[in-house]
Specification:
mainly alpha; 4 helices
């Protein structure tokens, strides 16, 4: 699909709060350019919006931090070999479960 050649320019003046609201809404969409997003709005066409699950995002962030902390602990000499292997096994289980949780959420 080739690029369209646009023949008209539309200028719109916004105050700061209107512009901030527009940018906030734009950032929640799939569009790479503001022009594409604005064209859809002006023409009354449906706009594709990305929905983010804040609690899932927070959980993933916490789980990633926990994983990093556990890796640091594994590097220390305070654990026996058996304890280290058990910790590694549990980390693998946590990672597998995280993938099971996140994968279906990313396909929505």
């Amino acid at each position: 699909m080739g690029y369209k050649r646009f023949k008209r320019i539309l200028s719109v003046y916004l105050d700061q709060s209107e512009y901030e609201k527009l940018m906030e809404n734009y950032k929640a969409t799939i569009y790479k350019s503001k022009a594409s997003y604005l064209r859809k709005l002006v023409l009354g066409q449906p706009v594709a919006v990305i929905y983010r699950n804040r609690s899932l995002d927070d959980f993933i962030e916490t789980a990633v931090k926990l994983r990093k902390d556990l890796k640091i602990l594994l590097g220390k000499e305070t654990f026996t070999t058996i304890e280290k292997e058990e910790l590694k096994r549990k980390m693998t289980i946590i990672e597998e479960n995280l993938i099971k949780i996140v994968t279906p959420c990313n396909h929505k």
